[in-house]
Amino acid sequence: MQRKKIIGAGITLFAVILGIIWLIPLIWLIGTAFSVPSFHMTLFPTTPFTLDNLKYVWNAIPFGTYYLNTLTLVICTFAVQFVTSTLAAYALGVMDFKGSSIVFAVIFMQIIIPNDVLITPNFMTLSEMKLIDTKLGMMLPFYGSALAIFLLRQHFKSIPKALAEAAKIDGASTWQTIWRVYMPCAKPAYLSFAVISVSYHWNNYLWPLIVTNSPQNRTLTVGLAIFAKSKEANMQWANVCAAAFIIILPLLLAFFVAQKQFMSSFVSAGIKE
C-alpha cells in the first residue's frame, strides 16, 4: 500500500514538472508580448507593461484576411470530415460486407503514414486539377480522415445492435438510425476528433505554405512566419510574440472555457473491442 502511494506521488510530481516545462514557453511568449521591446531575453519581463506591440502588429498584418482564411479552412474541413467519417465508420463498423476488414486495414495504415510524406503527390495532384493557391486546394487532401473513421468505427461497434433494430422496427430509415442512434452515442468520439482536427488545421504551417502564393489565401501561421522575416517585425521578439499571441488566443480561450468537456471526451473515446 505504501509502495503504491509512493509510486502515485512520483507520477504526480513527474506530471507537474512536465506541465511546468510545457508552460515556460507560453509564459515567456505572453510576458514578452505585453512588454516594452528589449534586446535582453528573460523568462519574466523586466520592462513596463504595454499594449503597443499588439496594436503595431495588428496594423502591420492583415489579420482579418488571415483569420477568415483560417476559419474557412478549419470549419469547412471539419464539416466535410464529419460527413465522410460518419458514413465510412457506419459502413465499416455496422454493415457486414465482404472485404470490410481489408478496407479498414488500408484506412488504418494511413494513420501510421505521416502527412508530410504525402505532400509531393498531393501537390502534383492539385497542380493537375488547377487548385494551387486556392482555399479548396488547402482543404481537399484532408476531407477524409483515417483517425476519425477509426474512432467512430470503434464507438459504433460498441453500440448494442438492439438499439438500431428497435429504431428500424419503429420505422426509422438508415439515415434516421445513424442520426438518432449512432451519432448521439458517439458524441465523445466526435468531440475528441473535433479538438484534434481544429487544433491541427489551425496550427498547420507546412501545407498552407506550399500550396498558397497570394496574401488572399494565406493562413495565420503562414502570415506569422512571413511577418517574422519582414522588416515590419524590426527584429523585435516583442512584436513576433504579440503576433503569435493573437493567433493562439482563440484556441487558449476555447480550451480554458471547455476543458472539462475536452478531457472527459478523450477519456470516453478510448478503444473499444
TrEMBL record:
- CDD domains (UniProt xref): TM_PBP2
PROSITE patterns, alphabetized: ABC_TM1 (PS50928)
Kindly list the biological process annotations in GO that this record carries: transmembrane transport
- Where does the record place the ABC transmembrane type-1 domain? 67-258
Mode of membrane association: Multi-pass membrane protein
Q: Which family does it belong to?
A: Belongs to the binding-protein-dependent transport system permease family.
Primary place of residence?
Answer: membrane
Under which name does UniProt file this protein?
A: Carbohydrate ABC transporter permease
As for subcellular location, the record says:
Cell membrane
Query: What transmembrane ranges does the database entry give?
Result: 7-31, 66-90, 102-124, 136-152, 237-258
- Entry-linked InterPro entries: MetI-like, MetI-like_sf
Question: What Gene Ontology terms describe where this protein resides (cellular component)?
Answer: plasma membrane
Q: Which UniProt keywords apply?
A: Cell membrane, Membrane, Transmembrane, Transmembrane helix, Transport
